[in-house]
Design goal:
- The protein is an all-alpha fold and 196 residues long.
- The chain is 81% helix and 0% strand.
- The protein contains nine helices and no strands.
- The longest helix is centred in the last third of the chain and has 28 residues.
- It is globular.
- 19% of the residues are buried.
């Protein structure tokens, strides 16, 4: 009996590492307790949060002059903060569920948004270090393009299509940000050189 028990103990699958309490709470929210399948809660939060961020960037880059009222000044940052929290929560969910392609995708997108935020907020710094920002943006978008190819190679056509659409949308925003920066600050780089 003892020998059989030891043999069965050896056959047991290795246990998953325990999650920290916050991760357990998020994982519990995203699991269907009856059959263990991942429900679309995390994906819905992820998609809605990204759509909100996309809409805010488009509003700021296309209609920024209309968003300077007191109401917009209070609402826009709050909405952006909530959307960013949703994006980060979804990214953590992908990491804890070991969905590595989705996790890398989320982390690259978070980096893209950080660069875009910096470009919108500090156009003079972007003008001074244009080559550096162009290199960072190119690297991030190339990484996202590589993920599109990986999903296509794996036969995950919907994921590849979805990632390609997001990539096109954010490249369009990046172009808008750079065009607005050139229009609003056409001589930012030359003014800085003259002041030295």
């Amino acid at each position: 009996l003892l020998g059989r028990h030891l043999l069965l103990a050896r056959r047991e699958e290795p246990r998953e590492p325990e999650m920290v309490p916050v991760a357990q709470g998020f994982a519990a929210l995203t699991r269907d307790e009856q059959d263990g399948w991942l429900v679309p809660f995390r994906q819905a939060v992820d998609a809605i949060a990204w759509l909100i961020l996309l809409a805010l960037f488009e509003l700021e880059t296309g209609y920024g002059d209309r968003l300077h009222g007191k109401g917009a000044a209070a609402v826009v940052p709050g909405v952006r903060l909530v959307a960013a929290a949703g994006v980060i929560a979804a990214a953590l969910g992908y990491v804890f569920e070991r969905e590595w392609l989705d996790a890398v995708n989320s982390l690259l997108w978070i980096a893209v948004v950080m660069v875009l935020e910096f470009e919108v907020r500090y156009p003079h710094a972007v003008e001074r270090h244009g080559a550096w920002f162009a290199g960072i943006a190119t690297t991030l978008y190339a990484g996202l393009g590589a993920l599109v190819l990986v999903w296509a190679w794996r036969g995950e056509w919907f994921d590849a299509y979805d990632a390609l659409l997001w990539l096109i949308a954010f490249v369009t925003i990046e172009i808008n940000v750079l065009q607005i920066s050139r229009v609003e600050h056409p001589r930012a780089g030359t003014d800085i050189l003259k002041s030295r």
